[in-house]
Amino acid sequence: MALWERTDVAVYEQVVVLFSCVLSALGSALVMGTYALWPDLRTTPRQLLVFLSVADLLSAVSYAYGVYMVFHDNTWDCVTQGAVSTFSNTSSFFWTVAIAIYLYIFIVKASQRLADSLVLYFHLISWGVPVAITVAAVSLQKIGYDASEVSVGWCWINIEEDDHVMWMLLTGKIWELLAYLILPVLYILIKRHIHKAHAALSEYRPILACNRLSHSIPAMADRKLTLIPIIFIALRIWSTVRFVLLLIDSPARQNPVLVILHGIGNTFQGAANCIMFVLCTRPVRLRLAAWLCCLSRDTRSNSDIPSQYAPSQSLSHTDRPSVSRLERDESEDEE
């Protein structure tokens, strides 16, 4: 490591990034949990979101281990962590773009059959290509300790390899840069189509339940279609900045603020998806709140004496109309 000065990761940086990893893991698990809980919300776009959440969960767990350990050498667990994060991070890029392609074909081209027919290819590419890249990198011993030059304690590409820049591009950066270009273009085209013809929105969502919803859906969908590429770029750009600084050998890549932003950006994607597609999606949010209320009510009723159990159960039954109202909100923006 004579040619490379290791970027020291401070304890407070570890804590912040670890907290981001925990939030991302919980967010990814919540996305998968809501999909499993309510079968009628299992649309194809949300199914694709679940696969993205699987990749983000793997990323969060592997990054958390790396940040906690702060590796200093090419140990076996360093290589293992680097391989898992390389696979999951690359897969996350592919699934993010796959969702955008699906929505573009579904909304702009108005072809659900064509969009659904691509799902198999999404799987082959989004899982297969990252596996092939990761296996090649591990087989050629390219994954290892990178002195936190383009990471925050975790392992990625061995910085001592002469062709480390090429492998950094192949195992992540080239796909990241392509996503920067593809995502804004696709979502801008979708937004333009929605603005030109609100009829396309009825293809994107089920039949509207009431007139009030028909006015709120375009604005809600428009906001989300704007935020998706912005949030992705806002999270990932810091990793790209540090990579560019590495290429020009600038010491600014070791700036603590930049290191923290890089750590959060690489690990927060699962939490960001949860905020957008669970907490900020009204039908899912209301169902989740009702489910938590039911759990709380059941917990209280189980602690009551037997004579109080029957009225509690009856109350739970009479409260069901509030839950059934959620069915009328299914037409609100979900993806």
TrEMBL record:
GO BP term (any one): cell surface receptor signaling pathway
Start-end of Polar residues biased regions: 302-316
GO cellular component: a single term: plasma membrane
Membrane topology: Multi-pass membrane protein
Gene3D superfamilies with a match to the protein in the record: Rhodopsin 7-helix transmembrane proteins
Compositional bias segments (type: Basic and acidic residues): 317-328
Residue ranges occupied by any G-protein coupled receptors family 2 profile domain in the UniProt entry: 13-281
Keyword list, A-Z: Membrane, Receptor, Transmembrane, Transmembrane helix
Keyword Transmembrane helix attributed: yes
Superkingdom of origin organism: Eukaryota
G-protein coupled receptors family 1 profile domain location: 27-190
Region annotation (Disordered) ranges: 302-335
UniProt-annotated location(s): Membrane
Ranges in a coiled coil: none
Membrane spanning stretches: 15-37, 49-71, 91-108, 120-145, 165-190, 225-248, 260-280
Molecular function GO terms recorded: cAMP binding; G protein-coupled receptor activity
Protein's recorded name: G-protein coupled receptor
Lineage per the UniProt record: Eukaryota, Metazoa, Chordata, Craniata, Vertebrata
Name of the gene: gpr157
